[in-house]
Amino acid sequence: SMERILEADYQAEALAVHDGGSAFVYGAVRGYSAFAKNDLTAAERHLRESIKARADFAPTQVALGQLLLQKAQPQEALVAFERALALDAKNPAALGNLGRLLLEGGKAERAVELLRQAVAIKDLAPTRLNLAAALLATEQVKEAGEHLARAVELEPQNGDAQRRLGDYLLSLGDSVGAERAFTLASKLGAEPWATFGLAQLRARAKDY
C-alpha cells in the first residue's frame, strides 16, 4: 500500500542514524529489500534475525508487523505493532496499523485514540479513512466526515476515499455531494461499490 511505501522511507532514515551491531543492520537492510521485492519468506527471516540481534528498534518491529499483515496473520502482526509502540510511543506506522487492527477486532474506541495520534504525527489518507471508520463505529458522525474530507483532499485520486465520502454524504441526505463523489469514485475504479452507491441514489430519487 502507499502507506507501507511511505513508511519504508521512515524506516530507512531511522536505520541510517541508529547505532547497532552488524547483525542488526544486515538483517534489517536485507529484510527491507526482500519485503520490497515481495519475497515475504526471506523478508521475515531477515527481519527476525535483526530483531533477535537488537529488539529495541521500533521500525524493524513495524516492518515485521506489516509483513505479517501481508501474510494474513493479523494477531501476530498486532503483537509486533504493540512491541513497536512500547519502544516508540510516537511511531505513526505502529499507531496507524495497531489502530486499524483494533477497529477490525471491534475495539473502536481504543482505535480512535491511536488513529488520532497517528494522523497528528503523520497525516496520511489511509489513516484518515481508518479514523473516520472508527469514529462512525462510535457514532461520532460529524468528526468522521471531517476526516473523510481530509482524506480526499490528501489523495483526490483515491477512489476508495471518494466512495467512502459518497457513502457518508448519502447517509446525511446530501444527494448532490454523494452523486459527485460516487461518480468520481467510479471513474477512479472503485467498483462495484461506486456503482452500487449511484444505484442507491437513483432508488431514493424514485421514492420522492
Description of the structure:
With 208 residues, the protein is mostly helical. The chain is 81% helix and 0% strand. It is built from twelve helices and no strands. Helix 11 packs antiparallel against helix 12. It is elongated and about 65 Å long.
Write the topology of this structure.
Layout: H1 2-17, H2 22-36, H3 40-53, H4 58-70, H5 74-87, H6 92-104, H7 108-121, H8 125-137, H9 141-154, H10 159-172, H11 175-187, H12 193-207
Quick description:
With 208 residues, the chain is an all-alpha fold. The protein contains twelve helices and no strands. Helix 9 packs antiparallel against helix 10, helix 10 runs parallel beside helix 12 and helix 11 packs antiparallel against helix 12.
Give descriptors for this structure:
208 residues, mainly alpha, 81% helix, disordered N terminus
Number of strand elements: 0
Strand content: under 5%
Give the uncertain stretches in residue-range form: 1-6
Tell me about the largest β-sheet. none
How confident is the prediction overall: mean pLDDT?
89
**Shape, principal axes of CA atoms:** elongated
Radius of gyration: 19 Å
Order of helical and strand elements: HHHHHHHHHHHH
Helical content (DSSP H or I, runs of 4+): over 70%
Structural class: mainly alpha
Termini separation (Å)? 41 Å
The number of helices is 12
